[in-house]
């Protein structure tokens, strides 16, 4: 149970940081469930560093982290490039399946990437490969810290 809580909290914090920095750098805020898509932000709005996440993301990050634990131990000896590639593919899979399940359950996925040129069914963005690559490698460090608890 502790592992689930740590992974869920880590994912939430990472997402809040990501969305705040994304808005600061790009000047747009992603969909917050208001059907407006990408919203242009003023300089003052960008500097607020408003990040966000969804309650649904906690179990998604938590369960995803738990699913990856045995794999992390199996891949530990691999070069970082190979491990990062595996994490990227698996994170895309969890994001896609989780998003599709939430669509079926609630009628809508909390995130909608359809505005991006590089999306698949609005559920994943292929231009996020570097983000998920780095996130997967960071999650290895979180797993090591959790395993040492």
Kindly describe this structure:
This protein has helices at 2-26, 43-47, 57-75, 80-106, 129-147, and strands spanning 28-29, 39-40, 119-120, 124-125. By secondary structure, the protein is mostly helical. Helix 1 crosses helix 3 (57-75), helix 3 (57-75) packs antiparallel against helix 4 (80-106) and helix 4 packs across helix 5. It is globular and about 45 Å long. The mean pLDDT is 90.
Order of helices and strands: HEEHHHEEH
Structurally, the number of domains stands at 1
Percentage of residues in strands:
5-15%
How far apart are the termini?
12 Å
Mean of residue pLDDT? 90
Structural topology:
Elements: H1 2-26, E1 28-29, E2 39-40, H2 43-47, H3 57-75, H4 80-106, E3 119-120, E4 124-125, H5 129-147
Antiparallel strand pairs: 1-2, 3-4
Protein name: ABC-transporter type IV
Transmembrane segments: 6-28, 49-68, 80-98
Membrane topology: Multi-pass membrane protein
In short:
The protein is built from 5 helices and 4 strands; from the N terminus they run H-E-E-H-H-H-E-E-H. The chain has 149 residues and is mainly α.
Keywords:
5% strand; 149 residues; two-stranded antiparallel ribbon; transmembrane helix; membrane; 4 strands; single chain; ABC-transporter type IV; transmembrane; mainly alpha
């Amino acid at each position: 149970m502790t592992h689930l809580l740590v992974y869920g909290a880590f994912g939430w914090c990472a997402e809040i940081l990501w969305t705040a920095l994304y808005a600061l750098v790009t000047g747009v805020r992603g969909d917050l469930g208001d059907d407006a898509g990408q919203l242009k932000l003023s300089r003052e709005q960008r500097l607020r560093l408003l990040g966000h996440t969804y309650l649904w993301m906690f179990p998604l990050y938590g369960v995803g982290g738990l699913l990856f634990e045995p794999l992390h131990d199996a891949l530990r000896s691999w070069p970082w490039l190979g491990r990062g590639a595996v994490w990227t593919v698996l994170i895309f899979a969890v994001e896609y399946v989780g998003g599709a399940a939430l669509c079926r359950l609630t009628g809508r996925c909390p995130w909608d990437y359809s505005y991006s040129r590089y999306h698949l069914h609005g559920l994943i963005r292929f231009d996020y490969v570097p983000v998920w690559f780095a996130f997967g490698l960071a999650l290895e460090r979180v797993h090591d810290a959790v395993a040492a608890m």
